[in-house]
Write a structure and sequence with these properties.
By secondary structure, this protein is α/β, with parallel strands linked by helices. The chain is about 45% helix and about 15% strand. It is globular and about 75 Å long. It is found in: Nucleus.
Length: about 350
Amino acid sequence: MEGTRSSTGRDDLLRRIRDFTRSVVEDLGEGRFPLITIDRFRNYCTSPDFNCSCISDKPKGQEILTLQRKSHVYRIDVLLRVLLIVQQLLQENRHGSKRDIYYMHPSVFSAQSVVDRAINDICILLGCSRHNLNVVPVGKGLVMGWLRFMEAGRKVDCIKSPNADHPIPVLVEEVKDIVSVGQYILIVEKESVFHRLANDQFCKENRCIVITGKGYPDIPTRRFLRLLVEKLHLPVYCLVDCDPYGFDILTTYRFGSMQMAYDTKFLRVPEIHWLGMFPSDSEKYDIPQQCLRRLTAEDKRRTEAMLCRCYLSREVPNWRLELEKMLQRGVKFEIEALSGHSLSYLSNVYITSKIQGRAYM
């Protein structure tokens, strides 16, 4: 489903690992300092003229690691240790999590972020996606609605009980035979909102598929969403809090994250429409004043930084205008603020009116 990078085979990866390690050993054996060149990617820049091509999957520069620099020695050591673990996973056709890898050498790795960076570097060096390395995250996403699929030979039938939650598959490449009679896909930022919709029998009343990544979405959630969009060709709407974090989650679904910029092409879902919450919704839907909170200094700093992202002006200028409006008004509010009208207001009024009235961006 995801082109050359995602379909990289195990044998090919093992060959690339052997070639890489052989070159490092040969350099050391001949008295040379090995040079490890890592391409650098980005999915946006902050250029004031927005004259860029950051959505391209081409590298935007390189970083060269060498044993001649003390600051690089530790990083190379970690990279080689993690690469050895990855090689073992591939050879034995087993899967492990990033946390598993960390606990194999906790005194050396010192922090999970050290392992995460090494895994990203290895993906770039080998030209593959993270799941190709048999490194899998602990899945956290949920799905419900009018959907049925096979996962590793097991049928997952959400249609039988469309308001029951099912975990999103961690090994998305094993998902086959996707069938749906849904009319659209709805992404909600938070698990609490997901369960609110389930309690309201939202999917029974509305033929749709609902997904949550429980905040910032993990890779399986983003890959699963992308797979559904590619296979089902349904409209996709995203509902997030009206605050900087909600907006950042929205852009992660649509444009990808900077940390995984090397894989953005295979993780982003550009078809997403922003359903809400908009700053203007506080007036349009008469949200009580006590539900509005002032933006903190950190909120303002984060919002100002996001306003500089080139893809907002280039691809979704109306999103950028709403973000500016949030900053100008200086207030934020959560999806649950709609419960001030009634517990079912979100399900019975807000979402349906937004979609039917095409009041999305």
